[in-house]
């Protein structure tokens, strides 16, 4: 007597569907990983957040100041009786000092060159950041009464 017992097993079609689901999941995971990796790289290389912080900080500093002059590629202002200067240092940072150049308050690092110009009460500061990034900061002082 031969007894045939039926064992439960996967069919070929079920195995192929399972492989298809696994390979699809791996491809989706790989795509998401590459997307996250490229976003992290972009954020680590991008200097935009440093520029935004610098421009907010400089705008806040200049709100309480009166324009004295622009000379030697520096901006000279009067803040509550104190003479201050803003400009590129001998290093690679744009900084705030007193009018004689003493004190050290760096505001933005990685500056390769700068240009400070004045047109009446409007001051324009052009900064070269690295090789290929140039930013321009424009501020208009209130007219003295």
Could you provide a short overview of the structure?
Helices cover about 35% and strands about 40% of the residues.
Describe the structure.
A hairpin with a 2-residue loop joins β1 and β2 (74-79). The model has no long low-confidence stretch (mean pLDDT 85). This protein has 2 domains: 14-44; 48-140, no CATH class. With 145 residues, the protein is of the alpha+beta class. The strands form 2 sheets. A 5-stranded antiparallel β-sheet has the order 1-2-3-4-5, with helices on one face. A 3-stranded antiparallel β-sheet has the order 6-7-8, covered by helices on one side. It is rod-shaped. The protein has helices at residues 12-45, 48-63; strands at residues 66-71, 74-79, 82-88, 93-98, 105-109, 111-119, 122-129, 133-140.
Give the percentage of residues in beta strands.
35-45%
Helix content: 25-40%
State Rg: 31 Å
**Overall pLDDT metric:** 85
Task: Detail the poorly predicted runs.
Answer: none
Shape: rod-shaped
Distance between the termini: 117 Å
Q: Give the beta-strand count.
A: 8
Our count of helices gives: 2
Largest sheet: 5 strands, antiparallel
Q: What quaternary form is this? A: single chain
H and E string = HHEEEEEEEE
SS content category: alpha+beta
Number of domains: 2
Strand order of the largest sheet: 1-2-3-4-5
């Amino acid at each position: 007597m031969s007894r045939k017992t039926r064992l439960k097993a996967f069919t070929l079609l079920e195995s192929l569907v399972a492989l298809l689901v696994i390979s699809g999941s791996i491809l989706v995971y790989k795509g998401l990983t590459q997307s996250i990796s490229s976003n992290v790289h972009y954020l680590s290389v991008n200097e935009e957040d440093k520029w935004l912080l610098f421009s907010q900080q400089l705008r806040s500093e200049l709100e309480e100041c009166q324009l004295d002059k622009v000379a030697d590629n520096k901006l000279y202002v009067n803040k509550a009786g104190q003479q201050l200067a803003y400009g590129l240092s001998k290093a690679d940072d744009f900084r705030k000092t007193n009018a004689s150049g003493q004190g050290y308050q760096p505001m933005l690092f990685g500056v390769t060159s700068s240009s400070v110009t004045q047109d009446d009460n409007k001051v324009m500061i052009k900064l070269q950041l690295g090789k290929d990034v140039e930013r321009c900061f424009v501020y208009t002082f209130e007219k003295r009464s």
